[in-house]
Amino acid sequence: MGKVSMGVTVVGAAAICAAGALIMRHRMRISNRCVTAADILKELEEKCATPVSKLRQISDAMTVEMHAGLASEGGSKLKMLISYVDNLPTGDEQGVFYALDLGGTNFRVLRVQLTGKSSIECQEFAEVTIPPPLMVGDSQALFDYIAAELAKFVADESEKFQLLAGRTRELGFTFSFPVMQLSIDSGTLIRWTKGFSIEEMVGKDVVQELAKAMKRQGVNMRVSALVNDTVGTLAGGRYSNKDVAVAVILGTGSNAAYVERAQAIPKWHGPHPKSGEMVINMEWGNFRSSHLPITEYDNSLDADSLNPGEQIFEKMISGMYLGEILRRVLLKMAEKAALFGDTVPPKLKTQFILRTPEMSAMHHDTTPDLKVVASKLKDVLEISDTSLSTRKIVVEVCNVMATRGARLAAAGILGILKKTGRDTVRDGEIPNTVIAMDGGLYEHYTEYRHCVEHTLNELLGDEVGKQVKLTHSNDGSGIGAALLAASHSQYA
To answer: Could you name the domain of life of the organism this protein comes from (predicted)?
Structure first.
């Protein structure tokens, strides 16, 4: 009897516990439903706020880090890499030159015919998508793939491009990853960014790897200039406008380069260039400051990334990550506030399924019932029958994330202008400053671009703002690399 009684008691207790658990889960569901998407949106807006006072703190922090990075290697999160470009193109360059622009999930090959009159007579290009496995495979496979595509492009050279007799084709190699430059035509990879991760390539000379691949693929070509995409954009911009002093890339990733006085580079131990200037590749994507408005979504994205703790600034402002941050916010709204109904859409749990082009399309939706938003949610995330109020919330989240990214980018630009004294009156004058901008995010995400421009004017004020111009340098990095190949030609 005792044993039976004990058994009944245990079973009874288990039943009570189970019932209690059901009640608790029910209460939790009710509690979770009390959190609305509007609540999460309001909290997001507060965490992502970028008042002018905060942006000035961020720009000041950027300037401080620039000084530290120029003072010594490893002195700052900003690498402030010496590019070995101390003479930008003059306009006198002549001949046929090639460029290879590797900067993200796609690469471009380009050829130009230079006339020696500050003009490009003709140009041709091709764009190639890199298969994702090659981004995390081995270096030989990646470079062989690139060289094979380059071989196809060279073979298709038309008669209108006249290679001067007795000359070998020369190439400017835009390699948009952190590189420790050793000379104008050599440099070792510091680390990968933008979704690439080929560890055995780190520390190797990227020009040598490309040269070996070109030889294997039968391409007779010399790499005469290794440049970062921002350095290439700066060269391309300067070719047509002598007031270009800064270049900024806002695309899959983000970076900046600018012209610095050689005397302001304490870590430079070589002879001072005749020009008295040196182009600095900042690698500003790795900038970090306590003033940055970092959220739980940024922290989770960083923790799940291929490079945790690195490229924090880039992860907040660039095209590779904006759509993913949006997805993480919408996922929380789905889980905590049932934004898309009682069931969390399975596709919404897939990392990087929501890309920045889709975010841009939804953000720019001007239809009365937000048809574009509905279409994107259905096509990409398989979420059907959304209400207009739900779609409006999605657009608001797009706006918050794009605005934060654009305003932070503008603060970074202000930091460069402060460092070079171009943010104020000098000797009674305000210098004309043109900033060459490139990258798909800046080119195609109109709301983002307008926000960058408006914020920079807001930070500079009317008087200085009139003298600072942002200009879109379409494919500036590719053309700039070809121009630098010409200005550093072995035949020059």
So the answer is: Eukaryota
